[in-house]
C-alpha cells in the first residue's frame, strides 16, 4: 500500500506559517513519481514523513519536515502546536521524528501550557498573538532588547501587527519559494 501525504509547501500554508498557496496540488508518496494537469506525486523514501496521512498530525509532520532542521524553530513549533487539539498533539508526539523536531515541539507545549497572553483573545487571535510575539522576540533578541508582551498585544489590536506581519510573510515566502525551486530542480535532476 502506497502512502500519500500533503506536500510541506501546502502544510506550512495551512498552519499559517506562510500565506503563499502552492501553484500545483503536490503530495508526497511512497510510490513512483507521477504528474498530470491536476496533481503531482513526489516519491519519498522518508517513512517518517508519510505517518498519519490525511490528518492534522500528518500535516504537522509534513510542515516540520518541509521547514527542515534549520528553519523549524520553537516559534514555528508554537504556531503548529497552537492549532492542534490535545489529542492531536499526543498523537504527533507518538510519531517517529528526529530529535530536533521533538525538542522544539516539546518546548512549544511547555510554553503554550503556561499561556500568559491576553485572555480576551479568540483562538484565531491567540495564533496571531503567538505569531507576532515570536517575531517580536526574534527581533528583540537580535537587537539586544527584552521582549514586551504588552507591546505585542497593543500592535495586534491597533493593526500595526498586520503590516509588520505582511512584510515578514513576504520575506518567509521568498525563502520558501527558493526552497520550492531548489526542491523542484532536485526533482527534475533526478528524472
Short synopsis of the structure:
This protein is α+β, with helices and mostly antiparallel strands and about 190 residues long. The protein has helices at about 10-15, 55-70, 75-80, 85-95, 100-115, 125-145, 150-160, 160-190, and strands at about 5, 25-30, 35, 40-45. The protein has a four-stranded mixed β-sheet with strand order 1-2-4-3.
Overview of this protein structure:
The chain is α+β, with helices and mostly antiparallel strands. Helix content is 61%, strand content 7%. The chain has eight helices and four strands. A four-stranded mixed β-sheet has the order 1-2-4-3. 28% of the residues are buried.
> What is the N-to-C order of secondary-structure elements (H for helix, E for strand)?
EHEEEHHHHHHH
Shape: globular
**Gyration radius, in Å:** 17 Å
Counted up, domains total 1
Q: In total, how many beta strands?
A: 4
How many strands, which pairing sense, and closed or not: the largest β-sheet? 4 strands, mixed
Number of helices: 8
Strand order of the largest sheet: 1-2-4-3
* Percent helix: 55-70%
Ends distance = 23 Å
Structural class: alpha+beta
Q: Please state the average pLDDT score.
A: 77
Poorly predicted segments: none
Estimate what percentage of residues fall within beta strands.
Answer: 5-15%
Amino acid at each position: 500500500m502506497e502512502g500519500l501525504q500533503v506536500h510541506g509547501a501546502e502544510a506550512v500554508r495551512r498552519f499559517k506559517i506562510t500565506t503563499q498557496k502552492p501553484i500545483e496540488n503536490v503530495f508526497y508518496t511512497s510510490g513512483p513519481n507521477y504528474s498530470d494537469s491536476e496533481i503531482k506525486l513526489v516519491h519519498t523514501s522518508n517513512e517518517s514523513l508519510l505517518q498519519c496521512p490525511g490528518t492534522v498530525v500528518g500535516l504537522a509532520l509534513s510542515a516540520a519536515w518541509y521547514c527542515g532542521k534549520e528553519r523549524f524553530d520553537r516559534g514555528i513549533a508554537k504556531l503548529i502546536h497552537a492549532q492542534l487539539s490535545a489529542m492531536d498533539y499526543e498523537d504527533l508526539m507518538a510519531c517517529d521524528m528526529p530529535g530536533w523536531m521533538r525538542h522544539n515541539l516539546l518546548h512549544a507545549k511547555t510554553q503554550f501550557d503556561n499561556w500568559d497572553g491576553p485572555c480576551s483573545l479568540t483562538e484565531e487571535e491567540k495564533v496571531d498573538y503567538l505569531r507576532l510575539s515570536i517575531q517580536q522576540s526574534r527581533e528583540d533578541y537580535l537587537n539586544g532588547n527584552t521582549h514586551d508582551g504588552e507591546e505585542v498585544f497593543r500592535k495586534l489590536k491597533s493593526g500595526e501587527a498586520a503590516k509588520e506581519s505582511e512584510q515578514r510573510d513576504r520575506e518567509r515566502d521568498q525563502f520558501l519559494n527558493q526552497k520550492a525551486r531548489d526542491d523542484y530542480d532536485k526533482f527534475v535532476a533526478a528524472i
